[in-house]
Design brief:
2 copies of one chain form a homodimer. Chain A is mainly α. The first copy, chain A, has 4 helices and no strands.
Amino acid sequence: MIGYIAGALTTIAFAPQLLKALSTKSTKDVSLLMLLCSTLGMALWLLHGIQVNDPALIVANSVSLVLASSLLGLKLKNDCFK
Amino acid sequence: MIGYIAGALTTIAFAPQLLKALSTKSTKDVSLLMLLCSTLGMALWLLHGIQVNDPALIVANSVSLVLASSLLGLKLKNDCFK
């Protein structure tokens, strides 16, 4: 039970960050390297989940990968390629 | 193998964010709710790891919990209680 709550919390953690970045249009203080590590890490977790056929890993990391890569896209747009 | 690289990446992801926050002394764009979800989520993952006696969960989440709670402390200090 604790594991499910933990998984839900760490999976959706980037949602408020994404909403904040969208509303303030500012990502200056958000670390690019943090987003790169997170996005790549979640993509590999998803790949691992597919390899070992673990639905929990697949679902959780699909959600968090969408959130993290959206944030990464915003960060690149705001602070790297403007 | 992919799982280990994924775990390492998502575990250390907050390290560059913490270093950035320490060097710029600015955490304005970092979401408080993201840090609360992450810190609580990692604490619960650690608890779950202790309950099911999984050394990988315990080690990974001990490291990331220290990083996330340090960031949370900085965020509270910088933007909430000053």
